């Protein structure tokens, strides 16, 4: 999958209206971002723990080698792209709001009033 496709997929919007659980929109968005981060962190921690355990059990690598690993430039570049996709995914609620505002002909003051709601 190409990088642009990954970015677009990370910002996929669910069909229908986003459920709202709290009284104001900014708090709702903050909660969405926080929950996205929590899910991402949990999945990453589970995967890392599994990989570390397998690598140690098979005698492929020791904890010290793992702790002292330095990525090369190619790996660093790949991680940078992965970070961009990751941030796009967790901040999608704000990006989708920005896109909705960009297609709207409302004035800035009208948009600001809506954001207060």
Description:
This is Terminase small subunit. It comes from Thalassotalea psychrophila. The model has no long low-confidence stretch (mean pLDDT 85). By secondary structure, this protein is mainly alpha-helical. The longest helix is centred in the middle third of the chain and has 33 residues. It starts with a helix and ends with a helix. The chain is 72% helix and 0% strand. Helix 1 packs parallel to helix 4.
Structure summary, number of beta strands: 0
The fraction of residues assigned to DSSP E strands is: under 5%
State the helicity in percent bands. over 70%
Main beta-sheet annotation: none
Structural class computed from helices and strand pairing: mainly alpha
User: Which spans of ≥5 residues are poorly predicted at pLDDT below 50?
Assistant: none
State the separation between the terminal residues, measured CA to CA: 39 Å
Overall shape: it is elongated
Number of helices: 6
| Rg (CA only) | 20 Å
Order of helices and strands: HHHHHH
What is the overall pLDDT average?
85
Protein name: Terminase small subunit
Organism: Thalassotalea psychrophila
Q: What keywords describe this structure?
A:
117 residues, mainly alpha, Terminase small subunit, 72% helix, elongated
List the helices and strands and how they pair.
Blueprint: H1 3-10, H2 25-57, H3 63-67, H4 73-90, H5 92-102, H6 108-116
Helix pairs in contact: 1-4
Short description:
This is Terminase small subunit. The chain is mostly helical and 117 residues long.
């Amino acid at each position: 999958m190409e990088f642009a496709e990954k970015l677009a997929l990370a910002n996929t919007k669910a069909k229908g209206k986003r459920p709202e659980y709290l009284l104001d929109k900014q708090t709702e968005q903050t909660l969405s971002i926080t929950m996205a981060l929590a899910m991402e962190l949990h999945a990453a921690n589970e995967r890392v723990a599994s990989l570390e355990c397998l690598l140690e059990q098979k005698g492929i690598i020791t904890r010290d080698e793992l702790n002292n690993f330095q990525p090369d430039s190619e790996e660093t570049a790949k991680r940078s792209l992965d970070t961009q996709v990751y941030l796009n995914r967790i901040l999608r609620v704000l990006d989708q709001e920005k896109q909705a505002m960009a297609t709207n002909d409302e004035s800035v003051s009208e948009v600001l009033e809506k954001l207060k709601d």
